[in-house]
């Protein structure tokens, strides 16, 4: 019988203890919730304060550099033009005040020069921000304005920025909107300085009070700088700030969280009435007993139900395991069948790839031979004209060019065969300038035809590379031809080619002043068979082949916007062979089309 009663009394004792633990737990959870919310608010408000500071931080520097604002310093007396300029700057920037002081601290120009409380003529040389600025530093100081009576953050810079200061440019930032935002949110927030003086607060009666009593020497320094005018700076409470996040203000207790702002030693404080951290304590005792009793009954009921469900689940899992084993055998057989089909599909795909490669190579042959053929036609036409005029010498030179072009066409055919086998390209030491001149000679008819000018900027000394010269010429011909066609529609169309060398690469830059590359097509211009020249007969292979050739040579080809308009293509090739030379003097060569 005793054992039975003991068992009956044991659950209530356990439930009372559980209720006590729950009360402690929920109180801790409430405190954590309040602290998390406080941390989020502090982070948000801190960013707002720093954002306001960064918003106006540039202004003193700009004013210090602007002769319109500092003209009064050179004359030694106020100037209306400087006042008007500062007034306009204050209106456009949203700053509370802008003013300029001479080396003695007397204000010579101010944005409020039209108002009764104008700063012009007043001396503020005792302010710390003036002293810091005259020492060449950035002055920062929060105080109540002695003339206007409005508090604000003062930011100062010396003028001129470099050399001995002749004066100081100052911006005053109005911080009252921060207090209004805190008050409108219904929260208790305040900002204290390095001495613990509250200077911004959502509660107006807390403003210009201190977290604790200040020593007399600290009070003396504050009053000497007139930072807070004639405020008495009395403490909010006789108790010191405790370490357990509890702060007493006017006999009211608050949960207190603080975060440093990172500016002038300021600290941001967020307060929550202590009752909010104990909101769950009162109802917990009644609900906890009921919940714990109910929990005990449910546990007994669920335990039996869980045992029954476990038995049923074990039987179901046994059946499912058998079914899974059967499906696994079927899946293994299906996978083997799919693997056989995949092997057959891969063989078919390989055949298709070979056919596609043949088609792409044919298109590449047509594209690459079209450029020397165009040049060949121009030379043939020119030779006929010269023969008709009896100019055998020039005709002979054109025949030499024709012979050179047919040799190039034969070489191009051989190079296109090597396109799919880059390792077979002939590598030798070449002068990059020779490749550029060869490409210019091939594309010269196209420039004459389009009326586009070509500017070459080449150094005097050789640019020696270990590479395949014909492939470089192919890339350059494609880039120059594309540039000529892009700039053909411009009234003053031109293409510029320049070279640069570095420790790791040689760079060729080809830029034009055409319409440029549309933003939506930048990622596709190097795709095979893609072209932006809808009516120009282009096959979309030039840039694709050029990129492939550049990569085969160990380099790269990229596109970027030109300045002020057009496009630039940057060809990077492996590091040139070093050859000590005197400092190069660039030589500019210009080819005028259709003169």
UniProtKB/TrEMBL annotation:
Catalytic activity: ATP + protein L-histidine = ADP + protein N-phospho-L-histidine
Intracellular or extracellular location(s): Cell membrane
Histidine kinase domain ranges (all copies): 364-577
CDD domains per the UniProt record, alphabetical: HisKA, PDC1_DGC_like
Record's keyword terms, sorted: ATP-binding, Cell membrane, Coiled coil, Kinase, Membrane, Nucleotide-binding, Phosphoprotein, Transferase, Transmembrane, Transmembrane helix, Two-component regulatory system
The UniProt record lists the keyword Kinase: yes
Transmembrane segments: 282-302
SMART domains cross-referenced by the UniProt entry: HATPase_c (SM00387), HisKA (SM00388)
Membrane topology note: Multi-pass membrane protein
GO molecular function: kinase activity
Primary location recorded for the protein, binned into one broad class: membrane
Top-level taxon: Bacteria
EC number: 2.7.13.3
Coiled-coil ranges per UniProt: 307-341
Pfam families: dCache_1, HATPase_c
Region (Disordered): 575-595
Name used for this protein in its record: histidine kinase
């Amino acid at each position: 019988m005793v054992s039975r009663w003991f068992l009956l009394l044991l659950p209530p004792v356990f439930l009372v203890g559980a209720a006590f633990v729950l009360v402690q737990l929920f109180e801790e959870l409430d405190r954590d919730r309040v602290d998390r919310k406080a941390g989020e608010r502090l982070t948000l408000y801190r960013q707002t304060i720093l954002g306001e500071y960064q918003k106006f931080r540039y202004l003193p520097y700009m004013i210090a550099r602007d002769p319109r604002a500092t003209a009064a310093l050179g004359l030694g007396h106020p100037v209306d033009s400087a006042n008007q300029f500062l007034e306009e700057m204050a209106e456009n920037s949203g700053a509370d005040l802008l003013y300029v002081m001479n080396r003695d601290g007397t204000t010579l120009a101010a944005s409020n020069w039209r108002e009764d409380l104008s700063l012009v003529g007043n001396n503020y040389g005792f302010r710390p921000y003036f002293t810091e600025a005259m020492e060449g530093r950035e002055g920062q100081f929060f105080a109540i304005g002695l003339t206007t009576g409005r508090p604000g953050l003062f930011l100062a810079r010396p003028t001129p920025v470099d050399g001995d200061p002749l004066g100081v440019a100052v911006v005053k930032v109005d911080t009252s909107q921060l207090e209004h935002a805190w008050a409108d949110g219904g929260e208790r927030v305040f900002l204290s300085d390095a001495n613990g003086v509250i200077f911004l607060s959502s509660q107006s009666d807390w403003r210009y009070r201190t977290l604790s009593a200040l020593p007399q020497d600290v009070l003396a320094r504050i009053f000497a700088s007139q930072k807070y005018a004639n405020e008495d700076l009395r403490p909010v409470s006789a108790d010191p700030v405790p370490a357990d996040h509890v702060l007493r203000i006017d006999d009211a207790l608050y949960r207190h969280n603080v975060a440093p702002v990172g500016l002038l030693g300021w600290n941001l404080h967020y307060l929550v009435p202590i009752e909010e951290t104990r909101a769950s304590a009162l109802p917990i005792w009644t609900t906890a007993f009921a919940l714990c009793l109910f929990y005990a009954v449910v546990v007994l009921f669920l335990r039996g139900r869980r045992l029954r469900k476990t038995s049923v689940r074990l039987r179901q899992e046994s059946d499912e395991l058998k079914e899974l084993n059967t499906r696994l055998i079927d899946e293994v057989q299906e996978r083997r069948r799919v693997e056989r089909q995949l092997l057959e599909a891969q063989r078919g795909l390989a055949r298709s790839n070979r056919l596609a490669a043949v088609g792409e190579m044919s298109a590449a042959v047509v594209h690459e031979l079209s450029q020397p053929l165009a040049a060949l036609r121009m030379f043939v036409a020119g030779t006929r004209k010269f023969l008709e005029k009896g100019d055998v010498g020039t005709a002979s030179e054109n025949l030499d060019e024709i012979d050179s072009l047919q040799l190039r066409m034969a070489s191009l055919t051989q190079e296109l065969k090597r396109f799919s086998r880059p390792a077979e390209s002939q590598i030798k030491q070449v002068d990059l300038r020779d490749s550029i001149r060869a490409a210019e000679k091939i594309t010269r008819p196209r420039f004459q035809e389009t009326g586009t000018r070509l500017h070459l900027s080449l150094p005097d000394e050789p640019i020696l590379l270990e590479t395949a010269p014909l492939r470089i010429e192919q890339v350059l011909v494609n880039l120059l031809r594309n540039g000529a066609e892009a700039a053909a529609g411009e009234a003053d169309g031109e293409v510029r080619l320049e070279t640069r060398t570095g420790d790791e690469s040689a760079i060729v830059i080809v830029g034009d002043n055409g319409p440029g590359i549309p933003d939506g097509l930048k990622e596709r211009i190097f795709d095979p068979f893609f072209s932006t020249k809808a009516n120009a007969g282009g096959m979309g292979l030039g840039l694709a082949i050029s990129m492939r050739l550049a990569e085969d040579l160990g380099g790269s080809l990229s596109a970027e916007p030109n300045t002020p308009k057009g496009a630039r293509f940057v060809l990077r090739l492996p590091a040139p062979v070093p050859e000590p030379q005197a400092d190069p003097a660039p030589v500019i060569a210009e080819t005028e089309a259709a003169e």
